[in-house]
Design brief:
alpha+beta; Arc Repressor Mutant, subunit A; three-stranded antiparallel beta sheet; globular
Amino acid sequence: MKGVYKCSDGGYAEDPRECRGGVEGFLGGAERVRLSKLMAGILRHFPERYGVRVDGEGWALIDEVVQALRRAGYPWAERWHVEAIAALDPKGRYEVREGRIRARYGHSIRVKVEPLSYETPLTLYHGTTRENLLSIMAVGILPMKRLKVHLSETVEEALEVARRHGRNVVVLEVDVNCVKRKGYTVARASKRVYIADKVPPECIRRVITP
C-alpha cells in the first residue's frame, strides 16, 4: 500500500504532487497498513481492550483511538495519521465527523450503522474458501461472527477478500433480487462493500472458480 502525505493545506494525499502547498508529514505504506488493521479491530471488535468507548452507532473519539494506538506500541501515532487513513481508505471503511470516527461495516460488537443507500446492483459477489462451500450451499451465506454478510460488486474484489482466508478460493454469484424477495435486507455500506442480513442458498446463482 502507498504511503500517505499530510499536505500543508490540511488535506491528505498518496502522491506528494497533489499537495499544492507543500508537504508537512509522511506515513509509510507498511505503517499505514498496520495502523489501519489495528484501527479496524478497535472500532469493529474490541474497543474495550484498548480503553476506547464506542457508542450505539459505532462512533468513537479520534483522540481516544490515537491514545489506544500509542498504548498498542505506536507511541509516534498522531491524530492526523488516523484522519488520513480514514480519508484515503480505498474501500471507504471509515467515516469521520466532528472529532469522531467509526467503521462503516464489519462489526462484531452490537452497533447500528445506517447504510449509505438501499440501491444495489442486481448481482453481487461473495468470496470464500472451497472448504466452506458445502456448508454454504446447504444453509446459505451467514454473517458468522459479524453482524452482516459482506458482498462485493466485482469478482476481483470478492477474490481479494477470499484470499485473506486461504488460497483455495471460490466466488459465489448472488442474485440480489432473490435475497430481497426472501425478506432479507441488502444495502450499500461503503464505496465498495455491500451488506446483507443473509443470503439463502437458492439465491446463489453459480460458483466461480478463479
